[in-house]
Amino acid sequence: MSIDWTSLGQVTAVSIGVTFAVVVVFAFGVLGLSRYEGAKEQGGTSTAGIAQAGLCFLACAAVVAYGIYLIVPQFH
Amino acid sequence: MDHITFLVAVVIVTALAFDFTNGFHDTANAMATSIATGALKPKTAVLISGALNLVGAFLSTEVAKTISGGIVNDAKVTPGMIFAGLVGAILWNLLTWLVGLPSSSSHALFGGLIGAVWVGAGSGAVNFDKVVEKIIIPAFASPVVAGVAALIATYCAYKLTARGRAGSVTKGFRLGQIGSASLVSLAHGTNDAQKTMGIITLTLISVGALPDGAGPPVWVITTAGLAIGLGTYIGGWRIIRTMGKGLTEIQSPQGFAAETASTAVILTSAHMGFALSTTQVASGSILGAGLGRRLAEVRWGVAGRMVAAWVITLPCAALVGGISAYAVKHGGNFGTVVVALVGAALAAGIVLLSRRNPIDAKNVNDGHQVAIRTEPPSHVGTAA
After folding, report:
1. Is the model more confident about B5 or about B15?
2. Helices then strands (H, E): number in chain B?
3. In a domain, B381, yes or no
4. Farthest CA pair distance, chain A
5. B133–A38: do the CB atoms touch at under 8 Å?
6. Which residues of B touch A34 (CB under 8 A)?
7. Smallest CA–CA separation between A48 and chain B, in Å?
8. Contact B284, B143 (CB under 8 A)
9. Please, what is the Cα angle at B180 between B179 and B186, to 5 degrees?
10. Running DSSP on this structure, what letter comes out for residue B164?
11. For B319-357, how does the pLDDT look when each residue is reduced to its tens digit (9 = 90+)?
């Protein structure tokens, strides 16, 4: 019996890295959204806020799309 | 169809029953945190998850080519042993559901098969090296990896969004949860439904109803997909309560971090060819998310009972599988019928016991404990 430490390490590193990246980018998106909604409440608008939210959520959507690509064998 | 003997018919029905328990046992993995944070209404969550499991069953072309992934010697496995192993797995799944503990359906299945094959064909037919490599190591590693990932992500999510408006932050992460939970459901369908398809297909091949190396017929894919989808939709609410409320009180940023970690670990390992238990990954993520939010309470008592259930899942399912295999081996068709009837009676008994303190879509979020009796329990009775 041999334990494949390299693969185990890779799974660990990739999993932690991807989780961290997605959650951080999503959190920035949420912050942008929060700024936009805050500005709207005071009658103004925040283009920077909505742009930041849009970009971040788009990036997360791209990761989700890649996830679906990995799950569905017909795409390979 | 003259190849389909009584025993084979019983194996197919039992395999579908296992697939059903697998579905409702594992609904919690994908949906517990979304239900707990209110990202999805309970009924909506199980509907989405059930539908995605069904879709996943059809998408997956990589149907299991071995019954056990090499853990037992497939050449020595008979339909009778498969039946006995499935009975062990089903009963263990139902028992852990009754007490609301998330345990691995795959471990229950492997355990049942190991017990049945050990009794039926001797210990030489069990590959213990593979047991360590495919079950024990991933069982230790995967929840830890998922937990660490969720912990770091949760900590950062709270740090970063501390300045944001509370309402927007909660809403934003709730929306994100829907996406991450759906991915877990889809991945679950492609993985777990194909195990049952593999078992039925290999049983049919072993009696000559299908040629060697044949893929699963459409009716096998459809019934297996429907069984797991329906099971998911019925929902194991007792386990959903434990995972969403029992381990820790989950807020939407934690839910999002936990589900993202689960998805990342499941997809990366699948890509690298690691076998792992979705249940253990999801539980590890939830614990990590609980630790990542400062002052969040992790109920270590619940976590401890859950880990104890993980450790005993395989041996317990193996014991039931072994006893059933003994009856099938020495009793022939009569023994099979007795095992089936006793198994069905025990399953019915467990379902009746659960009625004393039912947990469903309406009250799943009302508390964090899963008791068997409504009055303060004097002892934890399991009539099984």
Report:
1. B15
2. 12, 0
3. no
4. 67
5. no
6. 161, 164-165, 168-169, 172
7. 15
8. yes
9. 90
10. S
11. 999 999 999 888 888 888 889 999 999 999 998 888 888
Q: Give the whole-number percent of chain B exceeding pLDDT 70.
A: 93
> Does any domain span residue B125?
yes
Chain B CB within 8 Å of residue A7 CB: yes
Q: Which two tokens stand for residue B13?
A: 């029905």
From CA B25, how far away is CA B280, in angstroms rounded? Answer: 12
Residues of chain A in contact with residue B163, where contact means CB-CB under 8 angstroms, are 31
Amino acid at site B243: M
* B98: nearest Cα among B338, B379, B371: B371
What's the DSSP call for residue B165?
-
The C-alpha atoms of residue A51 and residue B155 are separated, in whole angstroms, by 25
Tell me if B226 is assigned to some domain: yes
Question: Do residues B104 and B313 lie in contact, with contact meaning Cβ atoms separated by under 8 Å?
Answer: yes
CA dist B59 and B311 (Å) reads 32
Q: Which residue of A has its CA nearest to B180?
A: A64
Going by pLDDT thresholds of 50, 70 and 90, the confidence category of residue B286 is very high
Note whether B172 contacts A10, CB cutoff 8 Å. no
For chain B, say whether A9 makes contact (Cβ under 8 Å).
no
- Cβ burial of A54 (10 Å; 0-12, 13-18, 19+) is middle
Say yes or no for a CB contact (<8 Å) between B152 and A73. no
Number of domains in chain B: 1
The residue behind tokens 């893929």 is B215
Give the residue extent of every domain in chain A. Answer: 14-75
Q: How far apart are CA B259 and CA B57, in angstroms?
A: 21
pTM above threshold 0.95: no
Here the ipTM equals 0.92
CA–CA gap between residue B185 and residue B109 (Å, rounded): 20
Phi and psi torsions of A49, nearest 5° = -60, -50
The Cα-based distances of B187 to B152, B194, B251, B372 in angstroms read: 23, 11, 24, 32
